[in-house]
Amino acid sequence: MKLLAIIFSVLTGILAGDYNAQTLSVEKQDSIMGVQPTGRYRLVKENEQQIFRHSSVADWFIEDTMRHTRKRLGEGMFKGEDVQVRDAVMAPNGRYVAFAKDNYLYIHKLDFGTEVAVTKDENTDIISGIADWLYEEEFGTTTLFAWSPDSKMLAFVRLDESEVPTFSWDVYADTQYPTAESLRYPKAGCANAKASVCVYDIATKGIQRLQVTGDGLQDVYFPRLRWYKEDRLFVLRVNRDQTKMEVLDCNAKSTVTYPWYQEESKKYFVDYSLFDQWQWLSDGRMIVLSEQDGWRRAYLYGNDGIKTRALTPESIDVTAVYGVNEKTQTLYYQAATTPSTRDIYALNIKKGDITRLTQEEGMWSARFDQEATKAVFCYQSFTTPNTYTLCKVEGVKCKVERVLEDNKEVQEAWQANNLPEPEMMHIKGLEAMLLRAKSQESRAKSPLVVMHYSGPSSQRVLNRWRKRFEYALVEQGYAVLIVDTRGSDCKGRAWRNETYMSLGRKEAEDLIMAANEIAKRPDIDDERMAIMGWSYGGYETLFTMSQKNNPFKCAVAIAPVTDWKLYDSAYTERYMRRPQVNPRGYDEASLLNKAKDLTGKVLIIHGTADDNVHVQHTMQYIDALVRADKQFEMQLYPDDNHFLRKGNNAKHMHNRVIQFLQNNLKQ
After folding, report:
1. Looking at the DSSP assignment, which residues form a beta bridge with residue 106?
2. Same structural domain for residues 286 and 377?
3. d(CA 117, CA 641)
4. Does 616 lie in the same domain as 504?
5. Residue 136: which of 236, 52, 39, 49 has the closest Cα?
6. Coil, helix or strand for 646?
């Protein structure tokens, strides 16, 4: 995986035309985060230390390639102190670098080698320019600041966490007395950080607040900023229930804003993340990705914000928009040809003609250059590891120039293991795949493990190169069924929202049905079936084991949510709205109310330092089980987070799961 990450970093440079693939130092390129237009200065990141899922601190340096010197970013402001910083972005003109340290924003001036503070709030609960835990986890971003095209202004989101409740946990290892860690963590129905958007002027050193939170709109999210002119930017505003998304056109100088685009639903949530796929054309028109008509489709909008027409067809979800070649008027995008596959298409915007550029069945993705004339295509499937190919694209034609990486050695090593290819199937409308060892084909019956995630808009049944724990189970003699329940992705908006406002029940019905159907096969032992899942999958596993008609003898739930009132606001309210307006939905979805109905043998696994699904979920559920006189097994991992990768934990956990299954599914 490290090799693939390095390769993709190299490919980014090739597409931009900045590097020679034959002479490039891969190790060095992996840390370069920005290059001045003249090429003299470059921004380098080293010694990265992870904070949460996406965030990190690191040593950032500005290298002068002409004088062969380097200067640590932040050194001018924090002499003699810890100068590791969060995010850093070089201005388009290459004269400034904006960076974040702690909760504040700063600017380094390359011309003079000096640094100034942009924000100086005395209240340490105010965060400027970087994401709080909620924005990072649920809106997939750490950087909430952006340079104007002329580098004269810096826009940033300001988050006031003063009213957000604090969650804390103990750290046990290597200390005589436990120490405490804490973070501001808004749970469902509780106070969020108050968000606003500001603009800093380089010349005047003044900060103005944009008019984006008027009319009582304090409880909103601003997950994206995007400049489109020297003094104009789009601000994405999402209401708390995430049923309304607005793109605000903001004048950075006058601070006046007006809604350029609006999408609202009374029935479902609105997917804010599609904004990341929008494409701006030079004449002011835009390619907008939206599911307003029931499928994720690309639409052409005029520069007045009025929809012109739909570009992509109904009944197929567009999953990425890569770019537009304006000379040939060609749009390039990825779509789910089937729920389990992805292909790349070229669409003539004028004529409406669509050409499929990829043919081999599997998962295709791409990265295009700015003009959409070159692209790196990536292909993978069950039997083929990631293959990267550099292509030249002209309209609807695509010509392979060279293979950058075929991972042939990886494929050959895998084939030597003689492990099976999944058997794809449809089970009464559900996508599923079954894995059985080739050596088991002659056996009469195999114990079955159902593996799933089941969360809204998720997918695990994909024709991709994925060699994980399920193959270890196959080697142990188990058949493994992977299922995508109702609410999964790439089958239209209505299917994605099947579980809206009522998480848990329909997914459990689907898992039970799928297991019962597969158990009808003569090679599956219907008396020896287990189910396991992680995170949302852990929640749904316990929910399923609380249904009287479930066929499972035992279950493994890793880092499970047990009550949605304990989980974060942005994720939970996206699918359930707030507990104050949907109390019945929360009560019916809570595992704490179902402890008395738990059946079978259950192993619950959790890390005590999980900042995402707090170990509090497991502790409250265990308390409910004890009160209901229900027995269970439990495995805790001290001071580890949601992913359980610390030290030897991953290996230990997987061996623990295998031992649990052997103890409960043996003949």
Report:
1. 99, 117
2. yes
3. 34
4. yes
5. 52
6. coil
Backbone angles phi, psi at 443, to 5 degrees: -75, 155
Quickly count: other Cβ atoms within 10 Å of residue 327's Cβ.
11
**Owner of token pair 């004890």:** 626
Q: Count of CB atoms within 10 A of residue 238's CB?
A: 23
Q: What angle is formed at CA 152 by the lines to CA 282 and CA 272, rounded to 5 degrees?
A: 55
Q: Which helix (H) or strand (E) is 615 found in, with range?
A: helix 615-627
Give the sheet arrangement for strand 343-348, strand by strand.
Answer: 318-325, 330-335, 343-348, 354-356
The pLDDT confidence band at residue 438, using thresholds 50, 70 and 90, is: confident
Q: 434-442: long-range contacts at Cβ-Cβ below 8 A with a sequence spacing of 24 or more?
A: 434/479, 434/480, 434/481, 434/482, 434/518, 435/470, 435/471, 435/474, 435/479, 435/480, 435/481, 435/482, 436/474, 436/479, 436/480, 436/523, 437/474, 437/475, 437/477, 440/477, 440/479, 440/523, 441/523
The CATH number given to whatever domain includes residue 495 is 3.40.50.1820
Nearest-angstrom CA–CA distance, 533 and 537: 4
Distances (CA, A) of 271 to 265, 289, 290, 504, 635: 10, 10, 8, 21, 36
CA distance 353 to 339: 23
Handedness of CA 268, 270, 274, 278 (dihedral sign): positive
N-terminal to C-terminal alpha carbon distance within the chain: 38
For 518, phi then psi, to 5°, come to -70, -25
Pairing of β 387-394 and β 397-405: antiparallel
190-202 confidence digits (pLDDT tens):
999 999 999 999 9
Residues 538 and 631 in one domain: yes
Cα 538 to Cα 225: distance, rounded to the nearest angstrom: 35
Phi, psi of 445 (to 5 degrees): -145, 145
- The tokens for 357 are 């550029």
Residue 68 sits in the same domain as residue 165: no
Decide: 610 and 562 in contact? Cβ < 8 Å: no
Among 85, 117, 149, the domain boundary falls at 117
Question: Do 260 and 280 fall into the same domain?
Answer: no
Q: Please give the residue range of the domain that contains residue 62.
A: 31-117
Task: Give me the CATH number covering residue 363.
Answer: 2.130.10.120
**Quick one: 318 and 193 in the same domain?**
no
Q: Which of 42, 12, 322, 406 is nearest to 21 (CA)?
A: 12
Q: Which two tokens stand for residue 199?
A: 């603009």
Residue where one domain finishes, among candidates 386, 416, 446:
416
Question: Does residue 255 share a domain with residue 143?
Answer: yes
User: In 181-259, which ranges are continuous DSSP H helix?
Assistant: none
pLDDT digits over 100-134, tens only? 999 999 999 998 889 999 999 889 999 999 999 99
Q: Is 0.90 topped by the overall pTM?
A: yes
The count of structural domains within the chain is 5
The pLDDT tens digits of the residues spanning 303-338 come to: 888 999 999 999 999 999 999 999 999 999 999 999
Residue tagged 């329909």 (tokens): 506
Tell me how far apart the alpha carbons of residues 518 and 541 are, in angstroms, rounded to a whole number: 18
* Same domain membership, residue 367 and residue 315: yes
Length of the chain: 667
Which SS3 state, helix, strand or coil, does residue 289 take?
Answer: strand
The C-alpha atoms of residue 369 and residue 11 are separated, in whole angstroms, by 10
Going by C-alpha positions, the residue among 163, 223, 215 that lies closest to residue 194 is 163
